[in-house]
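Dear Dr. H.,

I hope your travels went smoothly. While you were away I took the liberty of generating a structure for the chain from your last submission, since the lab meeting agenda had it listed for discussion. I wanted you to have the full record in hand beforehand rather than looking at slides cold. The sequence, exactly as received, is reproduced here:
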Amino acid sequence: MTHRKNTDKWLQWAKRNPDAAFRELRKLTTSYLITDHPHLRPLIGTEDEAWFDAIETIDLHGNKKPLIELLQGDRVPSKVARSMLAEMLKRYQLKPRVGRTKTAEYKLTLQHIKMQSARMHYRKLRSEKMKPEAALKCAAEASGIVPDELEKYLNGRITRYRRAEQRIKALQSVG
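The corresponding predicted structure, in token form, is as follows:
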């Protein structure tokens, strides 16, 4: 479906095909807010306006903060808002920042569990009078960790694991 005027027929089609309607409207809207577009205004419910505004803020200004706040909040996006969010993610190429970045919470939790398991295994082997080097190597291999990383963890030189417990508690209190 190509560019059409604001007609009842077009609105009925758009309500049945929100994904296609947004793709069509995306071609038309480049310099002003989608929520002010005459074709789209009847499709937007009051619960969707915040989602559209947040997506437009990323498009127009590159500001992710409103969308992040919505995603972390209790509001659930409607099908139409999810369609817009998916369309926006398709348009942007997501790439990691240059340099050292913060480890993602879901990865940190798994790594933290592995390190805790390796530490407990190491302490058990040491209590059984095994030499430190052998216990370190054995515990690291059993947990699938590089021995150097385990040694740094045991010596407290890896800060992401020292802060992990605080971050995990914060996640548990939210969820």
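Two observations you may find useful: The radius of gyration is 25 Å. Residues 158 and 172 are 23 Å apart (CA to CA).

With kind regards,
E. W.
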